[in-house]
Amino acid sequence: MSTTMNASPVTASVPDPSGKAWACATASAFAGGLLLGVLTNLAQGWLPGAWNQIANSGAVWSVAAFAAGALLARQVSLPAAAVAGLFAESGLVVGYYGYAEIARDGMGSLLAPLVWLGMAFIAGPLFGMAGSWWRGNNPRHRVIGLAALAGVFGMEAIHYAWVLHYAPQAWACLAVLVIVPVLMGRTHRERALVLLTAIPFSLLAYLIFHELVLTTLLG
Hints:
By secondary structure, the chain is mainly alpha-helical. The protein has eight helices and no strands. The model is unreliable at 1-13 (pLDDT under 50).
């Protein structure tokens, strides 16, 4: 007696590798980054006192690339998510300094925007991939991706506390470091692993970004 199996195939969500998907991803990421760049420039005028530093922080700017990668994770491949992160971060730099040049007293020296644009070419793809990894199903990748987001706020907390001596902002960034895994982790184990991983990430990012890159380039 023969047995006939009549099971319908399972349709999986496969990222679209086509050029059209890449173009849409990069265009939308750049537009979103451009808008956020203008908003962060405006926020510096809205936030009181030393709090205006928050709008101009590398941690807040990195969220744009992470969000681009996370939003596009199910639609495009990992390389496309990295490119989207690059365009989101680059758009943010262009929006921020473009608004400063057009609507304010000018952006001043070209050194600062060129440095931040250079950092966008590094941080953009990294956080784009981190956002995409967080949306995936690989447990290790999820932990690393989310720890990168939490860790960049830990880096800012160190900078605010150690260099600028802005205690409230340092505590706020530390709070974000804890809140990110608590709200965005899937399980208690994942939340704990993200928090444990984010702490060394914070120290490493501070040593590389603030102590090496910015000190060398900006003095």
